[in-house]
């Protein structure tokens, strides 16, 4: 029996097993990200344009002031309305956030919308303040009248 095909098959099997051993642990280890922000599937909008949004976040190692900001768009994806900002705590634990703000009257209505939520740190660097994003999420939500 020729040696070359046997060596090739053995090397291929070893690489296959080694690849499986390396890939399997890392796939399960990264099941939950260290930093994230979520948006609840339902927000509220009132007749005067006040919008209330909420969700959860987790961040770590914030050295400067950290905030959860949010914006909403409806109909035209290139037009976003800023909906408040809330102070955040980057201690590695999950926290709730709630933002509210007012969009121009009749700009938003009950129905489907797209929300962007961002956990953003303002880190000082000499005379400059550098915005450092910790997590960003884009979610489809339903705005409910109320």
**Count of DSSP helices?**
1
Mean pLDDT: 83
CATH architecture descriptor name of the largest domain: Sandwich
Helix content: 10-25%
Q: Rough shape?
A: globular
What is the name of the CATH topology of the largest domain? Immunoglobulin-like
Order of helices and strands: HEEEEEEEE
Instruction: Indicate the multimeric state.
Output: single chain
Structural class: alpha+beta
Uncertain residue segments:
3-29
Distance between the termini: 80 Å
| Count of structural domains | 2
Question: Biggest sheet, in brief?
Answer: 8 strands, mixed
The value of Rg in angstroms is: 23 Å
- Strand composition percent: over 45%
CATH domain class of the largest domain: Mainly Beta
Please tally the β strands and state the result.
Answer: 8
In short, what is this structure?
This protein has 146 residues and is an alpha+beta fold. 18% of the residues lie in helices and 49% in strands. This is DUF6299 domain-containing protein.
């Amino acid at each position: 029996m020729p040696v070359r095909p046997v060596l090739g098959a053995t090397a291929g099997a070893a690489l296959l097993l080694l690849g499986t051993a390396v890939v399997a642990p890392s796939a399960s280890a990264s099941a939950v990200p260290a930093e994230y922000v979520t948006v609840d599937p339902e927000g509220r909008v009132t007749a005067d344009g006040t919008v209330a949004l909420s969700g959860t976040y987790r961040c770590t190692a914030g050295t400067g002031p950290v905030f959860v900001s949010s914006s909403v768009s409806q109909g035209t994806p290139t037009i976003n309305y800023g909906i408040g900002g809330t102070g955040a705590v980057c201690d590695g634990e999950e926290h709730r956030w709630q933002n509210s703000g007012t969009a121009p009257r009749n700009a938003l209505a009950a129905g489907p919308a797209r929300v962007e939520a961002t956990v953003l740190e303002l880190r000082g660097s000499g005379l400059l303040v550098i915005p450092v994003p910790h997590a960003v999420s884009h979610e489809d939500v339903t705005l409910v009248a109320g």
